[in-house]
Write a structure and sequence with these properties.
It is built from no helices and twelve strands. Helices cover 0% and strands 32% of the residues. The chain is mostly beta strands. The termini are far apart. A four-stranded antiparallel beta sheet has the order 1-2-5-4, with no helix packed on it.
């Protein structure tokens, strides 16, 4: 047989945009964060999971050493899971470094950091009555979310009727 030859050209990498942080948890500046909370960061695109490590995604007591934690990744969400509960009433700083990269190996443009504070004390199993002034009506099948600093309740049924346009907020600090 005769020799066969061919040529080809590869396309340049068209993804030159670094990954950007779109959301973090706990919220920046949040107070009353559970000492058992994980630290999460969402990105605008999938990451190279090999770029996540204990040196690229950390959190520490402000000015202190990094907290021992396990880093995991799923889709566009990175999780820093502390090995032990955080200390009550302590401010922590979470840091995402420039070494975090997307699948095209574009690195995070600049270090990204935020702070949050754990709850001063944790009350377990003891619930006290609070004022009902300004509270939403008693309801069922409602939605409720803890934002890291307050509880927000909305929607649901009051009696047998949908009451989806009312709700309330509760801030345990004030």
């Amino acid at each position: 047989g005769a020799d066969v030859s061919w040529s080809f050209t590869t396309a340049p990498n068209t993804d030159v945009t670094p990954p950007a942080v779109t959301e973090v948890s706990p919220d920046p500046g949040a107070a009353c964060v559970s000492p058992d909370a994980n630290v999460l960061a969402s990105f605008d695109e999938p990451l190279d999971s090999m770029s996540l490590s204990s040196t690229t995604f950390t959190h520490n007591e402000t000015g202190g050493a990094a907290i021992d934690a396990t880093q995991t990744y799923d889709g566009t969400i990175a999780v820093n899971d502390p090995q032990l509960p955080l200390v009550n009433g302590t401010t922590y700083q979470a840091i995402l470094t420039t070494a975090i990269a997307d699948l095209a190996r574009n690195t995070h443009g600049a270090d990204f950091s935020w702070s949050f504070t754990t709850a001063s004390t944790i009350v377990s199993g003891n619930w006290g009555q609070t004022s009902q002034a300004g509270a939403p009506s008693e309801r069922r099948d409602h939605s409720m979310v803890w934002s890291g600093s307050e509880i927000i309740v909305w929607g649901g049924y009051v009696g047998g009727f949908p009451d989806t346009d009312t709700g309330g907020r509760y801030d345990p600090v004030t």
